[in-house]
Hints:
Order of helices and strands: HHEEHEEEEEEEHHHEEHEHHHHHH
Number of domains: 2
Number of strands: 12
Number of helices: 13
Low-confidence stretches: 216-225
Strand content: 15-25%
Helix content: 40-55%
Oligomer: single chain
Structural class: alpha+beta
Mean pLDDT: 81
Distance between the termini: 25 Å
Shape: elongated
Amino acid sequence: MISLAGRDILHGWGKFVLTGAGLGLLIGVTLTMAGVYRGMVDDAHALLNNSGADLWLVQKDTQGPYAEASSIRDDVVHSVLGMEGVARAANVTYFTMQVLQGGDEVRAMVVGFEPGQPGAPDHLVAGRHLTRSHYEAVADVKTGFQLGETIRIRRHDYTVVGLTRRMVSSGGDPMVFIAMQDAQDAQFLKDNDAILNDRVRTAANPALNRPGVPGLLEAVQAAQSSSHSVNAVLVQVQDGVAPEQVAQGLRRWKHLQVFTREGMEEILVAKLIATSAKQIGMFLVILAIVSAAIVAFIIYTMTLGKIREIAVLKLIGTRNRTIAGMILQQALGLGLIGFVVGKIAATFWAPVFPKYVLLESGDALTGLGVTMLICALASTLAIRAALKVDPAEAIGG
Length: 397
């Protein structure tokens, strides 16, 4: 039996391959969109893993420190350390800003941490950890900074002494780690002009210059020149102790919000990136519809171009099932070429994509199955047109 699909592909292989390549680019974009979502989830998990925390202690009635703003006093950590079941606890601050690298700006999450405590970078790929309490930084390699370079954060310059990798925020921004006191000053402390203005306004307040309250004015001015706030306290529980058990005690006695690892994952994955996940899902549906339309149009056009050949096959007694199988093979071949091109394209451009793209083999297998299904469904229009061909057309002009 002559393979009409094979002969037609060989006769017009250039058009067939170019069509498959165009379809492959669409499939590559589809795989990339799925990889972007996987990357967002992986970024969230990396953030939680890199923190080294079992519990997050934040401002009450907030979902901080990653999804919402949170501010608590930095002396809370001392009483937390005295709680039963707590192994280690440390203050931490997080804020995102444009840090200066020479004349360029880099979007980064600045982390204030206590060396050797939860929240500190757990691995370096170059350089060393912080040894000074001021003006040193450890940066993720994604920031583009090199050892010895200077980072401008707010009013001060910081020297990069160490480099780390895959230390990112839930949004994929690379992290820059600086000492806790530097981070508190950068995030919470006002600039010199604002402090001076507040002092002038405070000194002019009659209520703070009462003779019967000595030192009140000086105390207020000192408070304006210092910061004692942090975004969260990261807690590690003792071995064998359930994190939820410690969390209940902290909620009861500290009157603050406490999240376990499961609760923080729900915030970052189920809530923080929920809108992005819906948008990506809509793009995947649109791309699937466009791909199906392209395959249906191409296969239908190619089928109409060989109506006479199909009529001859019917005239010599070829069954409809055989003719339908030939058209289906052609559609599946087009889909297979498209998937191979798409997978190769996605693999090549994923590393240079602005967002982290995580291409998983499971998604690739699912994509292959969906592609074959779409091509099979798209071929039904051409199959219906072929089955309606009158064998008499093989004799006609």
